[in-house]
Design goal:
- Helices cover about 75% and strands about 0% of the residues.
- The chain contains 19 helices and no strands.
- It is globular, with a radius of gyration of 21 Å.
- The chain binds 4-fluoro-L-phenylalanine.
Length: about 475
Amino acid sequence: MASIQQSAPTNRGQWTGRVGFILAAAGSAIGLGNIWRFPYSVAEGGGGLFVIIYLFFVLAIGLPVLLAELSVGRTSQRNPVGAFKALMPGKIWPYVGGLGVLTGACILAFYSVIAGWTLGYLGKAVSGTLVAAQDGEASGAIFTAFVADPLWPILLSGLFLLITLFVVRGGVAKGIERATTLLMPALFVLLLALAARAITLPNGMDGLTYLFTPDWSKLSLNVVMGALGQALFSLSLGMGAMITYGSYASRRENLWQSGLYIAVADTGIALLAGLIIFPTLFFAGAETAAGPGLVFVVLPTIFNQMPLGTVFAVAFFSLLAIAALTSTVSLLEVAVSYFVDEKGWSRTQAASAISFFCFALAVPSALAFGAVPALSGGENSILPFNLDFLTLNNNIWGNYSLSIGAILICIGVAWVWGIPKFLSALEAGENRTFPMPGREIVGLLIKIICPLAILTVFIFILVTGRYF
Ligand code: PFF
């Protein structure tokens, strides 16, 4: 380890302290994955059933993989490719980091489209058109028209990438950390207020029943795969984002404690989003709200039912955009740290080139909701499984690639780097007042249970041929 410390690149930047580190990592985890992706995955996965499997995966796979990534990052003090190179002998390991870098850029490409939608909706909230929508049908019509436009979604995703680029250029402490510190508490308070309103709407309780009552007859491979992907996506795992963020953490940080806080905050916000969306969905009767449009169709109807609806709507979409920003920043940072550490590019060069690549790939996703029928799913789709371009990418990169990445990270950490080194890296640092219970369990999960569980899901998928 001493040699790693000596040869670790200097001047990479570091979080200013523990709070900054936890907030930045929580900022990466908390984003559109919680508020946009989680609710629609729940809706597609049959409600409570999906939620239970998701929670199980967060605990059994998400938390251990999170701890593994943070330890690898902090110990190596490098980007994902460099981290694997430094800790794991053998030529193939850096490619695991490389897959992460590619996955991050491809996720960023479709993520920035949805993030662009949040900016568009912020505009609609300010102008008052959104709050006027009284039911699911009216807000569904607003959504359909907005996303089918051939220009705005592209421009807005470009704008979002530009803002991301600007923050990442600012560097670790000044750019990323500062942007997160204020937002997280504000988002939490606002979500609490919205949940309180949603639950007390007529039929609101039906939404809660839907969210928490599992219907086991809906159990299918797709639900299991979706829940696994969602657990990883939401915690920013399987592509090296937490390796990168861990690499900026000081040696004094207690990673077990930080990891636990990050996982609890992320899961709490996802459930809170569910407590808003589903009661409102049952209230608004928004049949049309399936798929990626769910949140955008359902939410306007709740603002219509609130005093000061416009104020709430503006606050909500501003915070959602900022929550998305702290995640896009981490998606971009993974690739930037790779090009800066390994290829010697400047931060600005790296961030600009990758953002441009992402923008080019964002365009077909931005056109996938009616503007170009061949990309928009359904009968006219030229894409596999008749999916739209964004959903296809969301599944490939957001579910499959993250799961493959997670399995490889587990194998690398447990079988190559070694559980004893991993556990001592995890426990190093100060703050012994927060002891880690069951260190053997964490070891066992990383070594056997996580890889085996993910592998089983994959084998079932290969055998049955039911990919999406
Ligand atoms: N966790 C983010 C969210 O839930 O919105 C998305 C994300 C960020 C996924 C960073 C993966 C990642 F590496």
